[in-house]
TrEMBL record:
<dbReference type="GO" id="GO:0042941">
    <property type="term" value="P:D-alanine transmembrane transport"/>
</dbReference>
<keyword id="KW-0378">Hydrolase</keyword>
<dbReference type="GO" id="GO:0015808">
    <property type="term" value="P:L-alanine transport"/>
</dbReference>
<dbReference type="InterPro" id="IPR003439">
    <property type="entry name" value="ABC_transporter-like_ATP-bd"/>
</dbReference>
<dbReference type="Pfam" id="PF00005">
    <property type="entry name" value="ABC_tran"/>
</dbReference>
<protein>
    <submittedName>
        <fullName>ABC transporter</fullName>
        <ecNumber>3.6.1.3</ecNumber>
    </submittedName>
</protein>
<dbReference type="InterPro" id="IPR017871">
    <property type="entry name" value="ABC_transporter-like_CS"/>
</dbReference>
<dbReference type="GO" id="GO:0005304">
    <property type="term" value="F:L-valine transmembrane transporter activity"/>
</dbReference>
<keyword id="KW-0813">Transport</keyword>
<dbReference type="GO" id="GO:0005886">
    <property type="term" value="C:plasma membrane"/>
</dbReference>
<dbReference type="GO" id="GO:1903805">
    <property type="term" value="P:L-valine import across plasma membrane"/>
</dbReference>
<feature type="domain" description="ABC transporter">
    <location>
        <begin position="4"/>
        <end position="251"/>
    </location>
</feature>
<dbReference type="GO" id="GO:0015188">
    <property type="term" value="F:L-isoleucine transmembrane transporter activity"/>
</dbReference>
<keyword id="KW-0067">ATP-binding</keyword>
<dbReference type="InterPro" id="IPR003593">
    <property type="entry name" value="AAA+_ATPase"/>
</dbReference>
<dbReference type="InterPro" id="IPR032823">
    <property type="entry name" value="BCA_ABC_TP_C"/>
</dbReference>
<dbReference type="GO" id="GO:0015192">
    <property type="term" value="F:L-phenylalanine transmembrane transporter activity"/>
</dbReference>
Length: 261
């Protein structure tokens, strides 16, 4: 079942068609990778899903409801969380504090909740339970009290993922989670993403340049080039698609992409 649908989703910045009539679906409970050369429109698509950018045309629906006019805060409260390409941790705060900061909005008691005894405490307990679960799953529990600045790059990326997960979203959007990781860290990432999907039951959408990661994790791949969708479908079939190979070979990061073949 499709949990997220794009219908001719488009956003133009002046003459730049950053995302251009993209139609596709994200299946609930699956891992979908969004790939494409630099500037293809991948992060812009995440920005459209999460309300950071507004569509010029088309629609994006979550569980059948348009999210096109919602603020990032509202999209997040519906159950869509994300990480960013650039690490955005508070370096002088601990891992646990960095993770719990994203629960702040959920901890604000809702208007009626104020009148129900124990509501606030119950929500807080659930959040703490979820924080512990994700710290264990992402192998961060021993580092919970460390300052973010004391962690390796790979660990910092995992803290970002943990922060996205702690609000217990239905969908988690990961923007280049393997960027800057060494081979060992990228291998571990494959395991962590699979666990997020299987053990926590999350629908995962990943923007990724590392084809080893893409091959291992993806149930489906969507390929963008110059803002347009040029292919989507199951992993190997998409990576063998001549249009996809051509799109990568036409770009300068050839060495990174050569193994797409
Ligand atoms: N706010 C904006 N204003 C103007 N142009 C933008 C804006 N956001 C994105 N773009 C342009 O849209 C295009 C797609 O950018 P985007 O960051 O989505 O690409 P990408 O596929 O994520 O690339 P990369 O793999 O390098 O991160 C680029 O030409 C970019 O310069």
């Amino acid at each position: 079942m499709a949990i997220l649908e794009f219908e001719r989703a488009s956003v133009h910045f002046g003459g730049v068609r950053a995302v251009d009539h993209v139609s596709s679906e994200i299946e609930q409970g699956k891992i979908t990778s969004i790939i494409g050369p630099n500037g293809a429109g991948k992060t812009t698509l995440f920005n459209l899903i999460t309300g950071a950018y507004k569509l010029t045309q088309g629609d994006i629906r979550f569980r059948g409801q348009s999210v096109a006019r919602l603020s990032p805060h509202m999209v997040h409260s519906l159950g869509i969380a994300r990480t960013f390409q650039n690490i955005r941790l508070f370096s002088s705060m601990t891992v646990l504090e960095n993770i719990m900061i994203s629960t702040h909005s959920k901890l604000k008691p809702k208007v009626l909740g104020i009148f129900i005894p124990g509501t606030f405490k119950r929500v807080e307990e659930n959040m703490k339970g979820m924080a512990e679960k994700v710290l264990v799953l992402l192998d961060l529990l021993p580092k919970a009290g460390y300052h973010a600045s004391a962690l390796s790059y790979g660990e910092q990326r995992r803290v970002e993922i943990a922060r996205a997960l702690v609000s217990d979203p239905e969908i988690v959007l990961l923007d280049e989670p393997s960027a800057g990781m060494n081979v060992r860290e990228a291998k571990e990432l494959i395991k962590f993403i699979s666990q997020i999907n299987k053990d926590l039951g999350k629908t995962v959408v990943v923007i990724e340049h590392n084809m080893r990661v893409v091959r291992h994790i993806s149930d489906k791949i969507i390929v963008l080039d110059h803002g347009c969708k040029i292919a989507d479908g199951v992993s190997e079939e998409v990576l063998r698609n001549p249009k996809v190979v051509e799109a990568y070979l036409g770009h300068s990061r050839l060495t990174t992409y050569a193994h797409v073949r």
